[in-house]
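Batch 3, record 17
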Amino acid sequence: MAKLLLYLTLATSLIPLFSVAFSPENPTDRRVLVLVDDFAIKSSHSLYFGSLTSRGFQLEFKLADDPNIGLQRYGQYLYDALVLFCPSVERFGGSIDVASIVDFVDSGHDLIVAADSNASDLIREVATECGVDFDEDPAAMVIDHINYAVSNFDGDHTLIASDDFIKADAPVLFQGIGHSLNPANSLVLKVLSASSSAYSANPKSKLSNPPSLTGSAISLVSVVQARNNARILITGSLSMFSNRFFRSGVQKAGSSIKHEKSGNEQFLTEISKWVFHERGHLKAVNVRHHKVGESDEPAIYRINDDLEYSVEIYEWSGTSWEPYVSDDVQVQFYMMSPYVLKTLSTDQKGHYSAEFKVPDVYGVFQFKVEYQRLGYTSLSLSKQIPVRPYRHNEYERFLPAAYPYYGSAFSMMAGFFIFTIVHLYSK
Amino acid sequence: MARSTGKDAQALFHSLRSAYAATPTTLKIIDLYVGFAVFTALIQVVYMAIVGSFPFNSFLSGVLSCVGTAVLAVCLRIQVNKDNKEFKDLPPERAFADFVLCNLVLHLVIMNFLG
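Prediction for the assembled complex:
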């Protein structure tokens, strides 16, 4: 009987632990749905999936046209992130379609989309909803006759070795379609772009007119961070994630350096960390403001008060919240336009504070912190506070500018007094 | 012509001085008092011209105290002057009492308006 009770309490106390996934306290995604064209991808891309599971993700593999798949049930989302490794799917099964994927992202969840040279219209549509446009020619691939990787079996220079980014040990192998970004879109970012000698065309047929996508306007890998901090990774090469590319060595044509291992594994591991909110995720807590010298938060300020504003910002390290250190966080004292804009100073432990004087204008203000930096979630804090003018007895009693007038009035009184004495008592 | 106007001005000034020396001391004291009030008023106007009229009520109060004092003193001088035929029957004590009362009211108003 006691043992049963023990097991029961243990079981019930562990239930909340199982549900702590993707909460504000732990922003890394946990449950990931991977949609594939066929389950062979599970084994041919096992190194990539293995790296994800070793970091604690629960992957669920389903065929893209499986009629039982669904992102949500009874209004609750079943997964924290979605990976679409199904470039040739014509129609999603179950309750998934482009609209439900867009809703999934709109509710703050992350997405990885990998297309390939036989990408269907559906995948292209999903990518367009996210802000990138794949090349419209269905048979086009990215070709680069200068930066291609030397290999035994490819003769058409579609296997590209790209090293147009910083801090990778070896170039990244890419074989697939390219996409372009709208330069007016401020949310989408090119992570890996093709070199200026690349173009997007059908490798098997002769070029009849100049290709529409050329040079470094072609993006090979892009990321999007939405305004609700959902992150999307879009790439045109599913084979970039494959074991074959992970393991193969790279030798760029024309150079004699032969790298033992391509940079694919390192690059994709790091970028998956970013997409699934293991890095670059900020939270701001403990917004406080008070008059200098006091410690409790007043409900209203007076003009020309000295006040102090403080906030704590932490960055998620994958396992815990570390203090975020930066010198460019600013606070605005805002009413229709910022009256005060001050850079917060930090004590290097995540505590930011600033002191300033309330402006000489009364009204309802807001303390606003708008912090958007490349690679980090955007912080948008706002706290409303009214500001009142002086009460009638808070003005200065005697104005220094009027001292001569005070003096003259009193001197007239004194003069009058002396004059009466003199006038009365003189002969 | 200029020399004669210069000489005329000098002659005028001399006759004025000698005539003024003949006035009674009492009146001279009142004249001194009026001069003091007007001088103080001028100082305040120059100060306002330099610094600006910010507490305008204080400026008005200060200037008007000087001007009011001068005006009341002039009234007293008129009423007390024995050569003045209009106020021959007015006792100088009555004139002085009026002067004191009016000054009291003036200073009450000035103190209120000074701010």
